[in-house]
Amino acid sequence: MGSRVRQIRQQLGLASAVALCTLLSGTVSGNTATTGFATAPPEPEFRFMRLRYHDNYMGYPGGSWLTDTPYAEYHLSQGIRRLTRIDTIDPDKLTPAEAVFPREPLDPDLFNHPFLYAVEVGRWYLDDEEAARIREYLDRGGFLVVDDFHGDEQWEGFIDSFHRIFPDKTVEEIPPDSEVFHVLFDLTQKVRDKVQIPGSAAWRFRSTCEECERGGAVPHWRGVYDDNHRLMAVINFNMDLGDSWELADDPEYPQPLTALGYRFGTSYALYAMTH
Asked: How far is 115 from 234, CA to CA, in rounded Å?
């Protein structure tokens, strides 16, 4: 019995020495001599990543990719943090500008994030190299959400670059019972009824759409699937989710439409994290 006790004490002594070395190592690496703990918090598992692209001939001065920033991602990040258990940034600890997280198509950091948002895509332009990189990102599990473009002319502007990403894929209407519309909220009826989320300009003019007379009257949820029928991209056509997020605290924008925009945006984020 005595030899067994001595053996256990020796083992405990060795474990204590290892623990002490580990603590000291943590103290040095964390650069905090008083506590032994690193001061920087871990990076959040999710950030709203916005695609920074070049414009085509319809582009806005300064860059169409900037539309609705910074408050679109600032407010939506608040909603995702409040409504889900996703570990995302805390916008209340940042300025709105700090919540913006832009990445260009060729940025290697693209592959560290599962969710990519592109706005005003009727005005975007992707060359062959950029399109190939976005395709690689999506093939490797990334998820693309495009938003805020309206009418036949903007669809042609969008599809010109989109076909460079997916020369071998067909754009399909996403059925109302698709999993992406059930991952958190039941959005089937809203999609089936084609409830349009309008931009602020259309709403101020008491309309429900932009480019109403030129193919912009009916909203569409379209997408592209991989060979395993995983949804790789959601195309929000003839609607403006970005305005519904950006204007979440604007009393002139209807609260029910902001709430619906939050539901779609949060569902897309969850789908990206789980598929």
From this structure: 11
pLDDT at 1: 42
The domain locations on the chain are 1-40, 49-274
Note the residue count of the chain: 275
pLDDT in tens, 241-251: 999 999 999 99
* Structure tokens given for 168: 């071998």
Radius of gyration of the chain (CA): 24
Residue ranges of the alpha helices (H) in 31-165? 71-83, 128-139, 151-165
Lookup: tokens for 187: 């959005």
Distance of CA 201 to the CA centre of its chain: 24
Alpha carbon of 62 to those of 108, 127, 208: distances in Å? 24, 19, 27
- Who has greater pLDDT, 252 or 3? 252
Is the distance from CB of 243 to CB of 86 less than 8 angstroms?
no
Alpha carbons 45 and 1: distance in angstroms, whole number: 51
DSSP annotation string for 1-15: -HHHHHHHHHHHHHH
- Which CATH code, of 3.40.50.720, 3.40.50.10440, 3.90.230.10, 3.40.50.12140, is assigned to 49-274? 3.40.50.12140
